Structure formats: structure tokens, C-alpha cells
Description:
The protein is of the alpha/beta class. The chain contains twelve helices and 14 strands. It has two domains: 171 residues, Rossmann fold (3-Layer(aba) Sandwich); 185 residues, 3-Layer(aba) Sandwich (Rossmann fold). 39% of the residues lie in helices and 16% in strands. The chain is globular and about 65 Å long. The C terminus is likely disordered.
Amino acid sequence: MIRKPIPVSLLYSTTGTYAALGRDAVDGALAAIAEVNGDPNCFFQFEPRVDDPAGSAERYAELAEATIRQRGCRHIVGAITSWSRKEVLPVVERHGALLWYAFPHEGYETSDSVIYLGACPNQHLLPLFDYVLPRYGRRPFIVGSNYIWGWEIGRIAREITEAVGGEVLAERFVPLGSEEVDHLIAEIRQKRPDFILSNLVGRSAQAFIRAYAELREDDVQFSAERRPLVACNLSEIDLADLSPQAKAGHIVTNIYLDRLDTEENRRFKARLAARRGGGRPVTGPFVFAYMAVSVLAQAVADAGTDDPDLIRKVVTQRRFDTPIGPISFDPRTHYAGLRPFIGRSDSEGGFEIFDTETPVVEADPYLVRSIFPGKPSGYAPGAGLRVVK
């Protein structure tokens, strides 16, 4: 059987300030493509077109334009930061292509030209604060990379904190990729917040974690048990190059963690180990890029074509098997319903997951239905504050 070739763009920064995330995402996408192309029952095969914008948001738009016009790609799996997504968005809208976006983000966006696999705030930040506020206190210090993700997650965190009678002690930003964080540590030491919310990305996140670990060693008042660092964009890949002391004690919310003990994840990791060997943690960036390609392949098999209009229709009308379990997409927003997990990192850089029975949380990208009552009992849909932009 002659199989139809379908070019697919993989548009991730594999060099630059957040290169580790991009390399893991490309590896995940290529792993899914290898599975698709190795299936003799597929009438098609994916032909990956890999481009590296090197962390330049402007290059994302240029490369997206080129891969659509010159290579015939109608599907782009890629973009990490919200800044880069915003650059690609008008390109895919103009050409009638689809962007498959698979990283956590700040919401407040919908487009017919995007399939949103990554979590939005009611699927990551709200569950995180629901866990952290009643246990550690209501006086956070917020640090973030100076772009859309840092700004918007910080803003929503402030609204949640104030709604429960708390106070954000400070909100500070550093340029994307900057490793100059000593001034942040000095202010944190002086203000003694109840916890630190990190919205930092890539090298900035790693530099801050190293510096905060030094503060923890120097002053027991900043132990992980007393004043933890918390985040909703931290995964095993961000901790990989840190010391055991720096790796441990951070609280995260994530949709996928390597130690997720479910039947779907066990089967997925067994397939991966058979193909690439074991001993290497599987991360969220890897899994979500894998999922984007896998969902696309299942939709192409159903539709009999890679036409973006038909693929969009299929994607929003059925459920898809994935390493995190079956998922479906809201036909109004194209966002996936996801199960958020809370975990704490250990000295090995893995995460202990507190509860694997979390229900699926339907995406609410504009936070018009998501509720955070003004009391420690936490996030509960149905009554209370509406966090709106």
C-alpha cells in the first residue's frame, strides 16, 4: 500500500533560553510520529519538518509562514511561550492552518485555528492555590518572566489572594532568560512571604531555584516546609541539572508527572522504554507534544484527510486515548478537559503525587465559570468570586 505523505511542522526552540523544554517537546512529537509511521494500518505517514526559532518570538512567525507556504504543512505542532504562540496565531489564521499548542498558558484566548492541549488557569493555578493557601498562608511573593505568561498568571494570583483576604507582598519580573536573581532573593529574605509563586521560564527558573536553595541552607526560616516555592509550569526537565538539595521541596500543579500511577501511563512508558530504553524520566513537555501528534493522527484516520476544517470538526466531536487517559475538546473553545495533579519534588527531581483520583476539570479560559470562594476551603465551582479580566 502506498501511504499518503502528510507534512507536519514541529516548531520548537531547541536552542536558546528555554531549549531544554523545546528539545523534550521535539523528542515527544518524533516519538509519536515514529509510532504512527510504524503502524501498517495507517493510510498515511507523517513527514516531520523540524524548525528551531532559537527562542526568538519573531522567528516563530517567519518559520511558520515558510513551513506553510513552502513545505505545504497544514498543521504546526509547536510554540512554547505565550509570546511565541501569539506570533504564530495570525499566520495560521491567515492560511487556514491549525496550531497544536501543548504547553500551560494563561488563557484569555480562543481561536478556530488552534487546538489547545495545554492547561489554562482554572486547570493549574486555581488548584495550586486551593492547595497552598490554607496550608502555608495568604502572603505570597510572585516572581515571573517579563512577558504575557508572567504578567497574567501574576495578575490572576493576585486576584485570588485578595479574594481570600490575603496580600501579595511583591510581584517582580526579570527578562526572559535572565539569570540575575540575587535582588529577588534579597527582597524575599527581607519580606519573609508565606510562599513564593514562580512564573519563571527556562534558565531563569533554574537560576532562581538554585539561589533560593542557597537561602534555604543559610536560613532555616526558608525551609521547604515553611516557605515553599510553588509553580504551575515546573516539570522534571526544569530540575534535571540542579543539586539534590535544590531539587527538593517544590510544590507544583501539573497535568502529567513521570510518576503518575495509572494504567494508561504504565502502558505508555512501557512502549517508550521498549523503543528508547528506560532510566530517563518522562516529562510534561515530552508527553503533551506526543499527545498533539497522536490526537492529530487519530483525527486524520477518522477524517480520511488532514484538511484543517475537517480535522477541527473531528477533534471536537470525540474522545481520544492518550497517556493521561481519554480526553475531549470543547467545541466552543477547542480546549481540552484535563485532570490537574498536585505534587512535591524530592531530591531526585521527581514528584510525589498527592492524589491520582482528581476529576477532569473542563477548561474555562476566560474564568467566567471558575470560582474561588473567599474562605480556606478552596476552589469550588458554583458560588463565590468570578475572576474576570
